[in-house]
Design brief:
508 residues; alpha/beta; eight-stranded parallel β-sheet; three-stranded antiparallel β-sheet; 18 helices; 15 strands; 42% helix
């Protein structure tokens, strides 16, 4: 009897599944027929009109292709913006695991633009790593800032980044002794959580310190600067991903919390102006810098993407008129390689100087005008590995910022979903379900490891070159491969304005 009952239920189950299968087939056929009719009669897409149903596979393959190439088809050195070898270097540095290779480099050492460092014949004995010395920013500010770490976290806003990502960066930055730039999205409690030094960025929309009509609210700025962690103020004129265009935060990312921090309506697209309403020329920029520095007592400078250096020459001439104390305390030069912010492809790929041109041009202009010691230079733009950072120091930077390097340290897999609120690693999304994948305690350790390992390996390069501080690297210590496969010293590609001015500007 029991056997008969079991057989009966088994037959019923099989029949039910068979019926469901037939129903699914019928539904699938109905869906295909509907799609075929819609595709055949629509007028906006010729491929689908000529090849209904089948034409959709083209778009699926286009979408999936970038993921298949990343893991299966591309070699370690092929991908952009960062190839697999670069990403793996960052992942290993962030995990604090062995970062050595065997059997030679897979890097094309004859490829145009590849940097080499000129090792000293007889480097000093002892520790093979050189520690950086503190550099003072804002000597004329009431609260000058002394900072040793030359590798720091670049501008990334809360809103563009998730709360767990900002928390992990803040905690990791404090552990590594580096600063964190807030980006233009205002100061969130998550920036302060770790106790790291903070660079507060004022964007063109003046998020977090704005009046209802988009002007600077002095009292809100003073409230932010009352936090002892806030060490400097950066006025953002532009960013590498979209020079000449303000940032856009999609409505889907404007949660009540983000709206409150930024001072904007909830659930609406937030478009920043393409420039500050009160800064239309060099003189007004100088006025803003002076006003903010006197108001807050903090070192104050600006961030820009450069097309040429004419206006920097004008700025230096204006400093001569007003006095050396009126100069910006720092300039952040962002190369057109910048890319954490979503931007039109035309701007991202075709406007602004890349860092390898903008950085030496800025440094040389400051040397020519006698401002190099007064104005510190900070750079950003695809500097994620130790030799990227060492190259920037050789070129004349005092500090190097990185955004995407630290995103990779957080676990970014370069899925290119940053602007869609669908980031699979929880870094650039406001979706709580996706944010859950980012565990702050784990990722903050990786942030700290990454920063420390980059600086350690730059220190190894500096020791190999025979200098006592990584910032003593200059253009005589680095060679770059030309289009003929032969390396050329940086000093020949980008000569200093004069040896006398170089000695004054670098302290050599």
């Amino acid at each position: 009897m029991e056997s008969t009952g079991f057989s009966h239920w088994l037959v019923v189950l099989v029949e039910t599944f068979a019926l469901l299968f037939v129903m699914l087939l019928v539904m699938a056929m109905l869906v295909l027929i509907v799609v075929w009719v819609v595709d055949r009669n629509q007028t906006h897409n010729s491929v689908l009109r000529n090849y209904p149903v089948v034409g959709h596979f083209r778009y699926w393959f286009l979408h999936l292709g970038e993921f298949f190439r990343q893991y299966l088809y591309s070699s370690d050195r092929e991908e952009l913006p960062f190839n697999r070898a670069q990403r793996m270097w960052v992942y290993r540095a962030a995990k604090n695991t062995e970062n050595t290779n065997s059997f030679g480099s897979t890097r094309d050492l004859r490829g145009e633009g590849v940097p080499f460092f000129v090792n000293a014949a007889f480097p000093s004995l002892g520790d093979h790593h050189v520690q950086p010395k503190p550099v003072r920013l804002g000597p004329y500010a009431r609260e000058p800032y002394d900072h040793a770490s030359f590798f720091n976290i670049s501008a990334m806003s809360f809103g563009a980044l998730s709360a767990p990502a900002v928390r992990a960066l803040s905690i990791g930055a404090a552990k590594a002794g580096i600063w964190m730039d807030t980006g233009e999205g205002g100061l969130a409690p998550y920036h302060l959580e770790g106790g790291c030094d903070i660079i507060f960025e004022i964007g063109t929309a003046k998020y977090g310190v704005r009046t209802p009509d988009g002007k600077l609210d002095d009292q809100k700025l003073l409230a932010i600067c009352a936090h002892k962690q806030v060490k400097m103020i950066s006025i953002k004129l532009g960013q590498g991903a979209k020079p000449g265009m303000g940032g856009l935060l999609p409505a889907i990312k404007v949660t009540p919390e983000i709206a409150e921090i930024r001072g904007i309506p909830v659930g609406q697209d937030s478009q920043s102006p393409n420039r500050h309403l009160d800064i239309a020329n060099v003189s007004q920029l100088m006025d803003s810098i002076q006003h903010i520095r006197l108001l807050t007592g903090k070192p104050t400078g600006f961030k820009a993407v450069f097309g040429d250096m004419t206006w920097i020459e004008e700025l230096c001439d204006e400093v001569d008129k007003r006095g050396i104390e009126s100069a910006p305390d720092f300039i952040i030069v962002d190369g057109s390689e910048g890319g954490t912010g979503a931007a039109p492809q035309t701007l991202m790929e075709g406007v602004g100087l890349p860092l390898h041109e903008a950085l030496p041009a800025l440094v040389n202009t400051l040397i020519e005008k006698g401002m190099r010691e007064r104005i510190k230079v900070i750079c950003s733009g695809k500097c994620i590995t130790a030799y990227d950072v060492a190259w920037a120091l050789s070129m004349g930077a005092d500090f190097v910022n990185s955004a995407r390097g630290f995103m990779l340290a957080l676990g970014c897999i370069q899925s290119l979903q940053c602007s869609r609120n669908t980031c699979p690693t929880g870094i650039t999304t406001q979706n709580p379900r996706l944010q859950r994948g980012l565990v702050v305690t784990d990722k903050s350790e990786r942030v700290a490891h990454y920063a420390k390992n980059v600086m350690h390996e730059v220190g190894i390069i500096a020791h190999s070159c025979g200098v006592d501080d990584p910032r003593e690297l200059d253009r005589t210590h680095c060679r770059v491969v030309g289009d003929d496969g032969i390396s050329v010293p940086l000093i020949k590609l980008f000569p200093y304005p004069s040896s006398a001015q170089r000695k004054v500007s670098t302290g050599l």
